[in-house]
Amino acid sequence: MSRIGRMPVVIPAGVDVQVDGPRVHVKGPMGEIERSFPPEMKVVIEGGQIIVERPSDLSHHRALHGMTRSLINNMVVGVNTGFVKVLEVNGVGYRAEVDGKNLILYVGYSHPVVIEPPFGISFETDARTRQIKVLGYDKELVGQIAANIRLVRPPEPYKGKGIRYIDEKVRRKAGKAGKV
């Protein structure tokens, strides 16, 4: 059996989970998420835990088993505590600020880049450490928005200027050989 798939998802206090066939609805202090799963996967709530069962040992059922359990766990953790992605802005004159809900990036273009957050996403910036935090309860959406912010000015390999994840290592290049 899948090691991840057979682990139960513990439902914390303050989180309400409803299973309606292939649909799972999770509601908590941060928000609510509803998602549809493949009908082969059986999702059951037993004693304050969510258990995902698969019908057979076929390879596609094994793959769906672990994935379904992980997605349900992400939904429960997201509505309970939320997710954060931290990006760092590097470069002379590069900065980020929040204006209302919008994130405004000054990253070397002739104009500031304005990013409007979708529902359930918020931004925080720290001018001193030059960090951008993307916060939300949907892990997939938080990761996608962080990736879109990084795409505005990806880090370049010569000076390392650009927007990168806080834990990302940028491979640096030497530059021209004739330069001393």
CATH topology of the largest domain: Outer Surface Protein A, domain 3
Tell me how many strands there are: 13
Q: Can you identify the CATH superfamily of the largest domain?
A: Ribosomal protein L6
SS-based structural class?
A: alpha+beta
What is the count of distinct domains? Answer: 2
Compute the number of helices. Answer: 2
Summed over residues and divided by their number, the pLDDT gives a mean of 93
H/E element string? EEEEEEHEEEEEEHE
The outline comes out as elongated
Helix content: 10-25%
Report how far the terminal alpha carbons are from each other: 59 Å
The CATH class of the largest domain: Alpha Beta
- Report low-confidence residues grouped into runs of 5 or more: none
Strand order in space, largest sheet: 11-12-7-13
Q: What is the level-2 CATH architecture name of the largest domain?
A: Alpha-Beta Complex
Q: Largest sheet, if any?
A: 4 strands, antiparallel
What Rg, in angstroms, do the CA atoms define? 21 Å
Strand content: 35-45%
Describe the SSE topology:
Layout: E1 9-10, E2 16-20, E3 23-27, E4 32-36, E5 42-46, E6 49-53, H1 59-80, E7 83-90, E8 95-99, E9 102-106, E10 113-115, E11 121-126, E12 131-136, H2 139-152, E13 162-165
Report on this structure.
- With 180 residues, this protein is of the alpha+beta class.
- The chain folds into 2 domains: 9-80, Ribosomal protein L6 (Outer Surface Protein A, domain 3, Alpha-Beta Complex); 83-165, Outer Surface Protein A, domain 3 (Alpha-Beta Complex), CATH 3.90.930.12.
- The protein is built from 2 helices and 13 strands.
- The chain has helices spanning 59-80, 139-152, and strands at 9-10, 16-20, 23-27, 32-36, 42-46, 49-53, 83-90, 95-99, 102-106, 113-115, 121-126, 131-136, 162-165.
- Strands 11-12-7-13 form a 4-stranded antiparallel β-sheet, covered by helices on one side. The protein has a 3-stranded antiparallel β-sheet with strand order 1-6-5.
- It is elongated, with a radius of gyration of 21 Å.
- The N and C termini lie far apart (59 Å).
